[in-house]
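We modelled each protein-ligand pair independently. The example shown here corresponds to the flavin-adenine dinucleotide entry; the chain sequence is given first, followed by the ligand as SMILES.
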Amino acid sequence: MKVELLSYTPEPDRVVAISARLCYSKIGISELAEKLTDDKIKDLLKKLESSGHLSPFEHANFTFGIEGISRVTSHQLVRHRIASYSQQSQRYVKMSNGEIVIPPSIKKNSSASELVYNLNDMAMSVYNKLIQLGIPEEDARYILPQGITTKIIVTMNARELLHFFNLRCCLRAQWEIRTMANLMLRKVKEVAPIIFEKAGPSCFSGPCPEEGPCPLKK
Ligand SMILES: Cc1cc2nc3c(=O)[nH]c(=O)nc-3n(C[C@H](O)[C@H](O)[C@H](O)COP(=O)(O)OP(=O)(O)OC[C@H]3O[C@@H](n4cnc5c(N)ncnc54)[C@H](O)[C@@H]3O)c2cc1C
């Protein structure tokens, strides 16, 4: 899988801090950025988080280009509603290469891998034959495996990303979306180190809300 940070709000940490300062200050907007040191930004962002005043985090946006994830994972991703998505269409684009994501549990089992590769070859062969028979791509795609790869562009603001990382960097999330979320987190940490300082699964910044088994729980 490939995750790129295509674009983002310039100086995201500062933009969030300026928005926070505006709410609690008498000074004019042009003066809000003055004397805003990294320590002051950290302090302001910490106050926002502890008070639950999270709307200033919505002013920082991040756009990712993601390739080579399965349709299983893109389906999980698009359940996050406070975001914008553009996904490669299976109605208009012929799925000619039939590349699929193979989960590690299948990859390490040679008999399971053989079954999956054979079924994928068969599915792709039927898909191509359906198209030769004049069936439109949008109908032929019904027989494609869920593991088939896709490309998607995603835009989320920092508030939604913090929530997304809480859920999807968690060891309870499925391995593929967790891998993708961790790659996204690594990218945004480079450009917004204060906003995302404690980002990650819920247990990084507070109590774990999950009831299920977790290797991190004693
Ligand atoms: C480990 C795990 C297992 C899961 N298993 C399943 C499953 O078996 N079946 C299944 O269907 N889904 C499952 N999901 C998906 C899950 O139910 C959510 O749809 C998904 O995680 C999106 O998160 P969200 O709804 O919190 O947030 P987002 O859509 O990212 O929204 C962010 C926040 O905005 C608020 N919000 C957004 N829309 C509304 C709204 N309409 N009304 C009120 N508040 C809103 C909520 O506070 C929400 O938390 C699973 C998710 C995880 C992480």
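The chain has two domains: 2-85+149-204, 91-143.
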